[in-house]
Amino acid sequence: MTTAPLIDPFARPISYLRVSVTDRCDFRCVYCMAENMTFLPKKELLTLEELDRLCSAFVRMGVEKLRITGGEPLVRRDIMTFFRSMTRHLDSGALKELTVTTNGSQLARFADDLYAAGVRRINVSLDTLDDAKFADITRWGRLPQVLKGIDAAQAAGLRVKINAVALKGFNEDELFTITEWCASRDMDLTFIEVMPMGDLGNEDRLDQYWSLKDLRARLAENYTLTDLAHRTGGPARYVRAEETGQQIGFITPLTHNFCESCNRVRLTCTGELFMCLGQEDNADLRAPLRADTTSDAPLEDAIRAAIARKPKGHDFDYSRQAIAGQMTRHMSHTGG
Ligand code: SAM
Ligand code: SF4
Question: Are 278 and 327 in contact (CB under 8 A)?
Fold first, then answer.
């Protein structure tokens, strides 16, 4: 059964939901988490059944693409049960794509199960191919484990896209190594501009900021880059590197040029719905979910009321070399 589709006040249909299923992670990437994170008590988290009810409500209301993220989604206990429960929406045709963004550490265990549940494409975050640098940037991660995970994913038939955060003075010198490694393995690649999320702690993100305009100009020294017309409604632009044939994306969340086509909302693992990555406004969906376990009507009303508050655009601004519009929440909370 479907209900009226979700359309926001700016006539944008909401067809893409990103769901953070946990705030926990087995890595501590320096741009994402503090080393000593305090995680949420379990009772705050949506249960797998609650996640199913929520996602199913969104699918009924027109969401066609579901991206599962975190924290690290694949460290949540029994998460494959949730993936398998979403398969019915793929089977019915209501859901067009079920996908996941992962650090890759658990892929060797789960790649086959993901494929069996109907996942066909995944994003793996990887900023460097150097063991020591990988250990530095993720603090707790180990590169060989992730590389094994990527092998397993490809062997299972999953299409892998690599997401690399562009960090000045960190992976600048690996630009071509990473690009060619992805090309040699038939993987697309997307660079992400570092965002002013969470607390800055000892890391100064303005120092780490490497503009993708600059990165793209560097790539163009070695490759012929052709702009690709297709957009995903998100903050990514794509080019094709003619020499390798691979697709390369650039995610620049700090520019406003994608807001007008924004088709997405984000759900945290506690059931808060964020209507915009760059704004604090959110709606609590856990309360209506838990208030009535027999009917989804109050939940659907709460979702519609939230979408009616979706703002036109976000407030990030790196101009004047000050971090304006800085968000206080971590990426691991809203799920990137
Ligand atoms: N743990 C999974 C992973 O790393 O892919 C999923 C969650 S992670 C928060 C999602 C994405 O956000 C990753 O690609 C990560 O690199 C990116 N990310 C985290 N903090 C960021 C920041 N401050 N600026 C830009 N991207 C960030
Ligand atoms: Fe974990 Fe992903 Fe954040 Fe790294 S970016 S700490 S892997 S949630």
Answer: yes
pTM equals 0.93
Query: Measured from the CA of 70, which atom of ligand 2 is nearest?
Result: 8
Decide: 332 in ligand 2 pocket, CB within 6 A.
yes
| Least confident stretch, 4-13, 49-58, 256-265, 284-293 | 256-265
Cα–Cα dist 214/265, whole Å? 29
> What is the domain range of residue 200?
16-334
In the chain, the number of structural domains is 1
Question: How does the average pLDDT of the chain come out, rounded?
Answer: 90
Q: Choose the residue to mutate in 72, 136, 194, 205 for probing ligand 2, maximizing ligand atoms within 8 Å of C-beta.
A: 72
Which is higher by pLDDT, 174 or 261?
174
What's 271's domain CATH number? 3.20.20.70
User: Looking at residues 228-253, what average pLDDT do you find?
Assistant: 87
The rounded Å distance from CA 208 to ligand 1 centre is: 15
In a domain, 6, yes or no: no
- For ligand 1, which residues put their CB under 6 angstroms from it? 25, 31-32, 69-70, 72, 101-103, 125, 163, 165, 192, 194-195, 197, 331-332, 335-336
